[in-house]
Fold this sequence. Notes:
With 175 residues, this protein is α+β, with helices and mostly antiparallel strands. It has one domain (2-173). The protein has five helices and six strands. Strands 1-6-5-4-3-2 form a six-stranded antiparallel beta sheet. The N and C termini lie far apart (66 Å).
Amino acid sequence: MKRWFTLGLLLLSTTSLLAKGVHQTPEAFIQESFQGKPPAAKVIWLNRPLKKNMANILGHSYRGLRVRYWGKGNRTAWVLNEVGKEKPITIGVIVRAGQLEQVTILTFRESRGGEVRYPSFTDQFINAKLTNKHDLDKSIDGISGATLSVQAVKKTAKLALFLHQQTPFSDDNTQ
């Protein structure tokens, strides 16, 4: 009986460890997002009104003076960090024509909640748009035991949609 208990603990800890770590580098995400030919990185400099809107979306102030992104046509790519419970989760987001095309967990550092990296969770974001109240226009199902990680991914998706609207690549400004 003790052997089965030990084996069970080992399996649980292994599952948790597998969730942690780098699943894709930001550089690889950007390369893949633009079929190996990414445009030059661009920057949004953050003024007070932008930072206020970002704080409303995130539920806390954004620490930084600028946000880097890549854009081509009506499509932008973002690599953003948001804290889950205690540590940052690095998330890659693609926005096309004002809606989410892809959400990818690039690096997960928490000890719990790693289920957010699976397509069964991230695929829920596809085609979501931002409402006038800075919320997603579709419901995203949570994951039991991963509430803070789920919230971090949702905030990041909303932030990427909002930031996309500030670029010359948004629907109104397609190049």
